[in-house]
Amino acid sequence: MLTLRTNHRAGLVDVKARPTLENADYLLLSLDTALFQQSVYCLKSKKVPASSSSSGVERRTLDWLRLAVKEYGKRRAFPSLILPLSRIGRDYSQTILEVHLEREIMGDVVFVGIEKEMSEDSPDPLETFLQMPYPTIFSLPLNTTDQKSEGPAREALADWLLSRNRTHLVSFAGKSPEYEGGPFNGFAVRRQISATLAGYANNETVSVLIPAKENKHTFIPSAHLAMLQSTFCLQPPGDSATRKGFWESILMGCIPVVFRRETYARVWDGIDWDEIAVVVEEEDFLESQADIVRTLEGVSQRDVKRRQRDIATLAARVQYGMPTSGEGVEWGGDAFGMLLRRLDAIKRRGSLRG
To answer: How far, in Å, CA of 228 to CA of 141, rounded?
Structure first.
C-alpha cells in the first residue's frame, strides 16, 4: 500500500523536477513482505509449483535484497535505501530480517513499518526503523481546492467532520476470539467489550458491528459509516498492539478509545495522544469489568468537543493522501510529509558523520 501510494504521489511531480537515480537522496525498494505470509498458505495447494514455496520465495527475495544493498547501499553517507515492511515486528524478524542479514544491511537501509513490536528485554536489531501510521483504504482530500474529488476540500475538512450528526455514542467493529492470547491481552479485552455491548443490543445509542461471513463484502464500509456516526470508537489491540481502525476512526472524526497509553506514542512525534484518544487502562478494565458505555457516558461534553476539534485538525495529517493532481497540494501536510521529515533528519545526521 505504501509503495502504491508513493508511486501515485511521485507521478504528480513535474517531469522536469523528478530526481534521477544519480541525484536522488533515497531509493525505495518495492518489496511486499506479505509474500512470505501468503506463500505459507499456498503450500496447502498441491497445484503450487515448488519454486513458489515459502522457502523459495524467501530465498529469492533475500538474494535480491542483498544485491540491491551491494549495488546501491554505499551511494550516500547515510542509509539511503528504504524498505517498506507490510507486517509487524514479530513477522518480519522471523522471515526476511534474519539476524545475520540485519547486521549485513543495517547501515544501508531505512526500515519503514506500521509497528515496531520488540521485546523490552532484548536489544533492538533495527536501529533505523520509522514507525508510521497504517495506510488506510480511503483518503481525505489533500488539495486546498479539488473539484474532482468527492467530499469537502481540505480547507473545509475540519468543519465537515465537526458537523457530522453522530447519533451513536460508541461503536466497535472487530472479532472477539474465544481462545486465550493475543497481544497485550487483546482478545480478553475484546471479549469483555463484546459482552458489555451485547447488553445494549436494542439501545439506539450504541452501534455494534461484529464481522460475519455473510456480510464480509459490506463489513468494511459499514464499519466506516459507524465511525462517522459515532462519538467514540473502541480500538483494542488486534493482530498486534496497534490497530488500523485507530487511524480510520481519526479520519472519520471519531474519538478513539485505547487500552494502553504507550501503544501509539512512537508513531507521531509532538502529538500528545492523551489529548486525542480516551485511555481506559487495560488492567483496570479487565479487573473491574467496568461497563465501557457508562464510562464513556461520563466524559464531559466539554472534553468531547475539545477532542473532536483536535481530531478534526489532525485528521488529514495521519493519512497517505491521494490527490488527483499536483496543483494546490500541501506536500508536507500528511503522513508522507512526516516520512519525508524523518528521512531528512536521517540524511542530516548521516551527512554530519560522513
So the answer is: 16
